[in-house]
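Render this sequence as a predicted structure.
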Amino acid sequence: MNLTLAVDDRLVERAREIARQQGTSLNALIRDYIEVLAGQVGGDEILGEFEAMWAEPGNSGGKPFKREELYDERLNRYAPR
């Protein structure tokens, strides 16, 4: 189905630039947003995706992060050897 919208030209150009930066088209961004808005990706599905990512190795698995743990690796990465 085709859809016609009335949108300010400057807004469309800004949105096109954002789409380009994300490696997609404005059409695809809007289509994806409408799919989410229409409920094709429901809250339960999103929750399931987050739970699956959380369970992957390397994630905390529910253990709270400590600031020092998060930054130690980054700080040590650039330390002189």
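Summary. The radius of gyration is 20 Å. The chain has four helices and no strands.
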